[in-house]
Amino acid sequence: MKLKVTSIDVDDQEKALRFYTDVLGFVKKTDVTNGPYRWLTVVSAEEPDGVELQLAPNDNPAAAAYQQAMFGQGQPAAMFYVDDVQQEHDRTSAAGAEFTMPPTKVTGSTIATLNDTCGNLIQITALDRRQ
Hints:
By secondary structure, the chain is of the alpha/beta class. The chain has one domain (5-127): 2,3-Dihydroxybiphenyl 1,2-Dioxygenase, domain 1 (Roll). It has 3 helices and 8 strands. Strand 7 and strand 8 form a beta hairpin.
């Protein structure tokens, strides 16, 4: 069994595509439209054949309520791993990212949280290297 696709609900797919590609540095993998439906995924530029992140339209009232509640509680909808949180913070801030939590050392890692502008908080994480 393999993990191939995971989803994140977004309030605007086009805005999400711009954010996840222009700010975070992902690349568009799939973009298929069928009537009002759009299947849109991005992947890591470092792993173009890796797990796809579907930027799913948040048109389900239950999903929208959940998304708003998680955002209101400060809970990230997704976590992305990086080698250096401060470096990614600086790079993405320069590209327009708004952080709700700056790089912060916690047990076993350094984390930061940013607003994806589409209804979600995203955590970036660098695990401490074991010596």
